[in-house]
Design brief:
The protein is mainly alpha-helical. The chain is built from 13 helices and six strands. It has two domains: about 5-20 and about 35-215 and about 280-305, no CATH class; about 220-280, no CATH class. Helix content is about 40%, strand content about 10%. A three-stranded mixed β-sheet has the order 1-2-3.
Length: about 325
């Protein structure tokens, strides 16, 4: 089933706001500071734009397979040092500009498109600042640049920020599992899945990453005797996406929790809830692992294996 679902509503908002996929709620003092804007990709004429489900994510998939490990750690150093793969990332991001924001597309294809777009643009934003220890070093408007607001992706003739992708494109779709898929380059985030999201598998991919998220003690802890949960700060910031109150929110995540006892406690709602500290440290692979991976990639490049090209559209991802 195909629909224009959020595309019309979202883009009406985005176009009306125009450059305010950047967020213009600044104080007069902040407005006086010149903001550095970086634009990715080129504006594609409407006649050359295609439905979201026609965008091919295979290049992004290949980069994720090469530079992201099973835990979501990214080898930023190796990716930045590879002129070929850096160019491949730029080309993939540029290809997103061809997506139409008004042509009909299946909701799952839309969801996969925007998750991939958010994650790819974030990785690009980090590479532009790398080496760095945290994305938070590049989100202060007092410095004249905020990755979340000032790094703009050209899509369908509009320039859209990371903030706008999250809050105006993805969250209105009503699937809170997106919070376990979009990755702001921090260890406190969910892992960056080392495969591209595709429409026909996005539901199962979101399920897998949601379960992985709560399997980590940095995101979930259960004190059985004390009848209490400690949850990731993501559940504090975006709790209302999961339900109108704590009971509903716990029921929404119950099936993703790692033990039957935790699932039962969440379903019953008979637990106290507090929130864990959030790590803004860069989601970078440990240095030793990254060096080892880089060496194997150099060796492997001499014997290029045949790469399986992912099909766009119904078979994407």
């Amino acid at each position: 089933m195909r629909s224009i679902f959020f595309l019309t509503l979202t883009l009406v908002s985005l176009i009306v706001l125009g450059g305010d996929a950047l967020g213009q709620s600044k104080s007069k003092r902040m407005a006086a500071i010149p903001q550095r804007q970086l634009s990715l990709g080129q504006v594609v004429p409407e006649v050359r734009q295609v439905s979201v489900d026609k965008i091919d994510h295979s290049a992004w998939h290949s980069l994720l397979q090469k530079y992201v490990d099973q835990s979501g750690g990214v080898n930023y150093a190796a990716l930045k040092s590879s002129a070929e793969d850096s160019a491949a990332l730029d080309a993939y991001i540029a290809s997103l500009a061809s997506a139409s924001l008004t042509k009909p597309a299946d909701k799952n294809d839309q969801k996969a498109f925007w998750i991939n777009a958010y994650n790819a643009v974030t990785v690009k934003g980090i590479l532009q600042e790398y080496p760095t220890k945290s994305i938070r070093n590049h989100t202060s408007e007092t410095g004249g640049y905020n990755i979340w607001k000032n790094l703009l992706l050209n899509v369908g003739g509009s320039q859209i920020s990371l903030d706008a992708i999250e809050h105006k494109a993805l969250r209105p779709m009503g699937d809170p599992r997106i919070h376990f898929a979009i990755v702001c380059a921090s260890k406190g985030c969910p892992r960056l899945l080392n495969e591209a999201y595709v429409g026909d598998r996005v539901d199962s991919q979101l399920e897998v990453n949601a379960r992985h998220f709560f399997s980590l003690t940095q995101n979930f802890q259960h004190d059985l005797r004390g009848r209490s949960f400690k949850l990731s700060a993501i559940m504090q910031w975006f709790g209302t996406d999961f339900g109108p109150d704590q009971s509903a929110q716990l029921q929404a995540i119950a099936s993703y929790l790692p033990t039957r006892e935790a699932q039962a406690a969440a379903t019953s709602g008979a637990v106290g809830v507090s929130f864990l500290d959030y790590s803004w440290d860069l989601n970078e692979q440990p240095k030793q692992m990254a060096v080892k991976q880089s060496s194997s990639q150099i060796s492997g490049s001499r014997n290029k294996a045949t790469r399986t090209r992912q099909k766009s559209g119904s078979g994407r991802r």
